[in-house]
Design goal:
With about 120 residues, this protein is an alpha+beta fold. The chain has helices spanning about 10-20, 50-65, 100-110; strands at about 25-30, 35-40, 70-75, 85.
Length: about 120
């Protein structure tokens, strides 16, 4: 998957490769109380993993096309190996969770204070 891609072009190529291998026809779906949104529809005989890959690739493709940059990435906290999807449009996300961000800030504060 393109979550570890180094740039927008590499991410787009990786997303397209996943869509080529694991395509599921897109369709508009309206969930209760929500506006219409694009979803992947798996054939009845499809492997659930293929549907999940197609759905994930479609979502990443929509985000990349809408935002023009990769709205996901690896957590910046040392020793954390998780990835995040950035849902905030105001400032770029760097950590997978508030806990990781707090841990890094507390460590930096302690380093500045000489502990």
């Amino acid at each position: 998957m393109p979550v570890g891609a180094d740039g927008v072009d590499e991410a787009a190529e990786a997303i397209n490769a996943v869509l080529d291998r694991h395509s599921a026809p897109p369709r508009l779906v309206r969930l209760a109380g929500r506006p219409w949104s694009l979803h992947s529809r798996a054939p009845h005989d499809a492997d659930p993993a293929d549907w999940l890959l197609a759905t994930t690739a479609l979502a990443l493709a929509l985000w990349l096309g809408e935002r023009g940059y990769c709205a996901w990435g690896p957590c910046a906290a040392p020793e954390c190996h998780r990835y995040f999807i950035d849902t905030d449009r105001r400032s770029p996300q760097r950590y997978c969770s508030p806990r990781c961000g707090t841990r890094v800030r507390v460590a930096a504060h302690r380093d500045r204070r000489g502990r």
